[in-house]
## 1
Amino acid sequence: MSNESRPKTPAKSTAARPIVITVEDSHLERIDEVAERMRDLGVKIDEILKATGLICGSTGGRLTELRKVPGVMSVEDQPTFEIPPPDAPLH
């Protein structure tokens, strides 16, 4: 069977989604190194909150790879909220 007659596999979505990375207490002094490793894995870093041990950014990659980075306690989707315009009807 030729490649032309095979159905194409749809590409996986790589749309960037906002994430929050929590850094382990033992790595707080090296949070910039953890952030740099995240950049190497394709994360766009928006903010590094050193006092709280959080790195905010976005990625189109898989979170499982990011969770394997030394010093990472967790990687979660960042909650988002939408506020309707002031003139929108109440529900």
## 2
Amino acid sequence: MQTEGGGQVARSDGVKVAPFMLCALVPLAACTAHESLGMNLGITVDAGAGGATGTDAAVRADVAVSADTADGRPVAALLPTLPKPKESCPTLAGLSGSNLTLLGSAVTIWSGPAGSVGPMVFYWHATSATSEEAVAGLGPGTAEVVRSGGVIASFTKSNGTGSNTGDYTWYTGDFGTADEVLACANQQGLIDPTHIHSAGYSPGSCQTAAMVYARAYLASVLCYSGGAWTLGQLPDPTNPPALVGAHGAVGSDVFGIDIATNTILFENDLKGKGSFVIDCDDGGDHLQSGPARMAGVAAPAWQFFKDHPYKVEPKPYKSVPSTFPSYCKLM
């Protein structure tokens, strides 16, 4: 793993830790060896506080969504404010792991047929992995989206702008690329604005956690072994995203620092802000337990995304669904 810079951050116990150690490299066996696998919101991200200012914090309170659905699942009562494209959009419909370039960055896209609508999901891979990690990380998600609708965007590598969010794999400037994907998908009528989600592994998990503090449109997120480098304020305090946090045992899920503790700190911060949080401690380590961690959590977490749209009320779950591994619990 390559490291850069000399900055340090403080853990909860006061120990200074180099930022590159906070979310470490995970050479997942499930990842393939080949390399394949965003709009201007007027946001200024404060890397120290993890917050954001600008139009991203605004919420459209004037649009209601019907509470009646064919499958009986809960739906959101409001729609988030979404970005507008900064450049001409490529056609996003009908793709199955194809690479596109948006704002100069390569993104791997899985998407439904033109005319179909589904979730918008961002995926951020681990340091040594590729964008194809999204297939394992999202369980049935990629195949379901291609078949039924929606867009999954898995990023190939960082554009290197803004602030580092983990081990110098991802930066806050990459959120601009995510905004562009979202804007284009929305412009083309491919996504449900109440179902915008993010997931990632190790530094990709740190990136997802940082995104929670930077983008108000997220409905729910999935973090595999990694929390926020710096805890911050939500851009819209009335929208605390629901969270599934999956990690190994404290003292075992370690790479430089205790990654399990890092994840739990993030879970507790979101819980304190009003998020619904499921914690999944499989007792494993950081390097070898990755594929099994994904295999156990990915499918129920995909359903968790479906059941937790933007600002959903009442909360859909009163307990952890039986589809989750037995080691998962409510925070």
